[in-house]
Structure formats: structure tokens, C-alpha cells
């Protein structure tokens, strides 16, 4: 799948998310990046050549925001094109991985920890 088709797919998946996720996405930018930088992987405790990262949430989760959290830059969810395409290969599997990754990263935005997200299947 080429990059342009992948970006269109990410937009489609975002449009099809369950309302309990999509309705809460205010001041969050979703971007497609080629792949995570090795320095980022290391900062996350991952090995750039052995580990795979499909997405990343950067920002302040809703559960940690106080009354003074206003007039700030948007939070960011990055979806990494190359790792997803390499791993999933087929269009249907790519779509499903994009969906799972988006739901996982949005769950972080909502303040869920890894255990809760795993329990939800994302």
C-alpha cells in the first residue's frame, strides 16, 4: 500500500471509530509518519531493530488535566506507516492494525493505562 492510500485509510478509520472514542477527540492531531526515529524508540525503552512501534500518543491525558489546561498546542497521535505495512501486508490486515493502533493511542489520550487498554483488546 502506498503512503497516499495509507493516509486515506487512516482518515476512513478515524471517521468509523465508535462514538465513545471519536466524540472525545478535541484538540488532538492525528498524523501519519513514515516510522519512529531510533532515538524515539530508545527513549521508550525499545530496541530500534528488534521492536516495532505502530503508533504513539504525545500529550497530557484527559484524566491528568486541570482547570488551567487551556490554550495549549494539540496533543498528537502518530501512526507509523512503514511498520504497519511491513507487519500487516494485506489491505484488510493493514486496516485492522490501523484501527487497533488508533483505538490504543486514543485510549492513552483518555487516560487509560496499558493494562486497561489490553483488557479492552486494543
Structure description:
The protein has a single domain (3-61, 73-120), classed as Zincin-like (2-Layer Sandwich), CATH 3.30.2010.20. It has 122 residues and is an alpha+beta fold. A three-stranded mixed beta sheet has the order 1-3-2. The protein contains six helices and three strands; from the N terminus they run ααβαββααα. It has helices at 3-15, 19-22, 38-43, 81-88, 91-109, 114-120; strands at residues 28-33, 55-58, 75-80. The mean pLDDT is 89. It is globular. The relative contact order is 0.20. Helix 1 packs across helix 5 (91-109) and helix 4 (81-88) packs across helix 5 (91-109).
Features:
three-stranded mixed β-sheet; Zincin-like; 3 strands; 6 helices; alpha+beta; 122 residues; single chain
Average per-residue pLDDT, rounded, comes to 89
Rough shape? globular
Please, how many helices?
6
Order of helices and strands: HHEHEEHHH
Derived from helix and strand composition plus strand pairing, the structural class reads alpha+beta
| Oligomeric category | single chain
Distance between the termini: 23 Å
Q: How many distinct domains?
A: 1
Within the largest sheet, what's the order of strands?
1-3-2
What Rg do the Cα atoms give?
A: 14 Å
Proportion of beta-strand residues? 5-15%
Tally of DSSP β-strands: 3
CATH C-level: Alpha Beta
Spans where pLDDT lies below 50 across 5 or more residues:
none
Kindly identify the CATH topology.
Zincin-like
* Helicity level: 40-55%
Query: Could you give a short account of the major beta sheet?
Result: 3 strands, mixed
The CATH architecture: 2-Layer Sandwich
Amino acid at each position: 500500500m502506498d503512503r497516499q492510500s495509507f493516509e486515506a485509510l487512516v482518515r476512513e478509520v478515524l471517521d468509523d471509530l465508535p462514538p465513545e472514542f471519536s466524540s472525545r477527540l478535541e484538540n488532538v492531531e492525528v498524523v501519519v509518519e513514515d516510522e519512529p526515529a531510533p532515538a524515539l524508540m530508545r527513549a521508550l525503552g525499545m530496541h530500534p531493530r528488534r521492536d516495532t512501534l505502530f503508533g504513539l500518543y504525545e500529550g497530557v491525558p484527559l484524566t491528568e488535566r486541570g482547570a488551567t489546561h487551556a490554550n495549549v498546542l494539540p496533543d498528537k497521535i502518530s501512526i507509523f506507516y512503514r511498520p504497519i505495512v511491513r507487519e500487516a501486508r494485506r489491505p484488510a490486515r493493514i486496516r485492522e492494525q490501523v484501527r487497533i493502533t488508533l483505538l490504543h493511542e486514543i485510549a492513552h489520550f483518555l487516560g487509560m493505562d496499558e493494562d486497561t487498554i489490553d483488557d479492552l483488546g486494543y
